[in-house]
Amino acid sequence: MKMRLTAAALALLLLLSAAAACGSAKEQPADTTASDINVTAAETEEALSDLEMRLAEPDDLPEADYNGYQFRLVIENNKDREYLLEAETGDVVDDVVYQRNLAVEERYGIKMVLGHQASHRENAAWIIKQVAAGDDSFDLVSSHVVALSGAAINGSFINWYDLPYINFEKPWWSRSNIEDLTYSGVAFLGIGDFALNAVGQTWCMYFDKQQAENYNIGDVYGIVEDGKWTLAKQNELTKGVYADLDGDNTRSAEDFYGFSISWGSALNTYVWAFDNPVCRKQPDGRIDIVFKTEKMPSICEAIYSLLYENETTFYGGTGYKSPIDGSNQVTGRDKFLYGKTLFATAFLEHAIYYFRELESDFGIIPYPKWNEEQADYYTMVDGGHAAMGVPVTIQDAERTGIIVEALNAESYRRVIPVYIETALKTKYTRDSESVRIVELLLRQRVFDFGYVYDNWQGCSFWMQDMMNQKNADFESYYAKNSSKMETHYQNVFEIFEEAAGS
């Protein structure tokens, strides 16, 4: 199943993957480090060819000198390394983040500084307060997309299309900005390569190759590539996969399971994986709620069965507490890290930050399809991923547009190739098949308008709430909650329509 890439194919795949919420699926070597990669001259030329293509992509920005202007960022706690670093650290990704900032600072005579930093909910509340007071206190926020939507619908952000020099057609911006997140010519939140975790927090599944062999489950990659990786197949492959590791004759967190999944967005991702989004854009540019489909009741019943009736599933629920960071939404990550599951749900970036030292060999695959008739695999990016917003209080729209466009362009040129190629594809992924899956995942990420502007008032989190309540009855849940949900989205639509008409 190993495949070689031509330089043109690799370049095309990369251009499609990171910057345009896209990617494809091919290969790269096995587990190694950036410093000891053994590549041929031809492979080096391929990598340089792609890098040269990225560097050659014009940003169409004018030159300017802003005389030491302090460009103020709002970010979340513990996100400094993705946005602001005072010096190179020796980590390959950290260093290109630093180099990106330095390049933009030197080009435009600015200094990037921290304007505000707090939790995602605190950031949103702070932004609303600052804008309401008319304070020019920051230039750009890049923070938790669902929380940030609260500030967006409160009128805190300028329409991206009103910012000079912002060009959503460029490859450093997600195509979803145009195709999914623009309503009648208005977009308050933008997703671009400056927000690195919009790549890293893509949901996927991991599997333990040795355990797959031990349990004779067959060629997992072949199943995926043949389009046969469905929820039914997942249940089939994990059937009977269990070991009472602690010998207490009780199924507990200490045992080995066929599948491990977290409470929260790991559950919600199944909805998008089964091609059942909250909203879809219509030909006239407006957006409709399409969540209530004929298959949604069956989806809820199937996920309930997976969690509560399949004895080979370990579901942590809200009661799980990670010994690593205290989170209750990382059951899959932890079970896989400790070698106590065959399959698990986790972020793509967990291969970098948690699984890099694993002795066991692992592979990466997408969430399953609903059935074989479904045309494609889909996934979503966790609600914790960052989106960007520019406050209506900025004093110089042209300056802001130029700097923000430059930051995303330099991220596309410098950061994304290293992050995907060096970190994800070469340094930490274990086989060429996983590399192809990484590209598939990036291509098939869904940025749903209904999710982005949910603000915990829509229906994007219904799945996790229903399963936490052990409720599989979608029709009754819909009847009870649909009025509030529809009111929320209608309010969002009206805000966009008002902005479009102004």
Structure description:
51% of the residues are buried. This protein is globular. 42% of the residues lie in helices and 13% in strands. It folds into 2 domains: 55-199 and 385-428, D-Maltodextrin-Binding Protein, domain 2 (3-Layer(aba) Sandwich); 203-380 and 456-501, D-Maltodextrin-Binding Protein, domain 2 (3-Layer(aba) Sandwich). The strands form 4 sheets. Strands 4, 5, 6, 9, 10 and 11 form a 6-stranded mixed beta sheet that branches. It is of the alpha/beta class.
Task: Fill in the keyword field for this structure.
502 residues, globular, disordered N terminus, 14 strands, D-Maltodextrin-Binding Protein, domain 2
Q: Please, how many helices? A: 20
What value does the Rg take, in angstroms?
22 Å
**Assembly status:** single chain
Number of strand segments: 14
Name of the top-level CATH class of the largest domain? Alpha Beta
Structural class: alpha/beta
CATH H-level homologous superfamily name of the largest domain = Periplasmic binding protein-like II
